[in-house]
Amino acid sequence: MTVRDLNAPDPTSADPARRTALVVGASGITGSALVDQLLDEGWEVLALSRGGSSRAGVRSVPADLRDPESLATALADVAPTHVFFTAWQRQATEAENIAVNGAMVRDLLAALAQAPLRHVALVTGLKHYLGPFEAYAAGVVPDTPFHEDEPRLDTPNFYYAQEDELFAAAERQGFTWSVHRSHTVIGYAVGNAMNMGLTVAVAATLANELDLPFRFPGSEAQWNGLTDMTDAGLLAEQMVWASTDPAGADEPFNIVNGDVFRWRWMWPRLAAHLGVDPARVEGPQGDPQPFEEQLTPHEGAWPAIAERLGLAEADITRLASWWHTDADLGRPMEVVTDMSKSREAGFLGYRRTERAFTELFDRYRAERLIPEVAR
């Protein structure tokens, strides 16, 4: 944990006009929402990503998080006061996930050793409570709703490695920190590996165009149990709050929308928003029937569908991440998250999940990534 001089100025209370944010993973779902939030609040924004950023009002910092020399060069002449770390890279095993993703946090913060850092906010997720992909919900996990004070699982987990690198850097460099444990994030991005909103919309488009069933790909437990989700804009709001309010310093926080739902209620409603014939909407039928099994055989039809409908992206792999949605919806247990801690600390943000989905669908339609729905 960070040790601070109690007589020193609180690093979260500096003049907002002098706040400079470095958003790591700025092109992703969470990073994009953070850039929007920070620009709206008048921050100076630096956007670090491998391909750089062309966003108006943002200074691009192209760098490879897996190359310490690239980071040192890219960050040599920047002086952020706040870092928002939203990036990760999936590897074949959890041991590799730990090595790669822990090192990215360590090397990024080491490259900023001379920067006037006040706060670093890190995004993780509910795998903190459920375990990593290769041991997902496989052992003893906490009872729902999940609380931030649950002990770590006795399983290697790259989220724990990222936290430990954050804590160690905070101790050395004197900044405060926050960790934000989101559920599945609903937000705008293209080419993202974890994008349930766009994945579901693409599945509905294939169902509509190829006369396929719009079948829930997950488990009976997910279909019938309570669950929640996280809007990317709400996650961004909490990260900025924790970075600037003393009540958010040196704490982990869950972050979900604040409502709960059952997929057996939500799935038909999303289908209606996506123009799916109600007769083709199906719940689970026995064992999960993952999107990867249902829809991979039909991916070859997407280029012709995109051309016929005037869509902007003919490469379905840039739109749909079947594996991630299958993993989230295939869990054999109810998943609900407690938000009491940040509410008591003063963060009262809320989103209605159905509206988060429908507003996202509208944005993807405006970008011509999914088709308009006949009204």
UniProtKB/TrEMBL annotation:
The family database entries (CDD domains) matched by this protein are listed as: 5beta-POR_like_SDR_a (cd08948)
Cross-referenced Gene3D superfamilies, in alphabetical order? Answer: NAD(P)-binding Rossmann-like Domain
Q: Note the superkingdom of the native organism.
A: Bacteria
Tell me the ranges covered by the PRISE-like Rossmann-fold domain, including all copies: 81-371
For this entry, the protein name equals SDR family oxidoreductase
Q: Which organism is it from?
A: Microlunatus spumicola
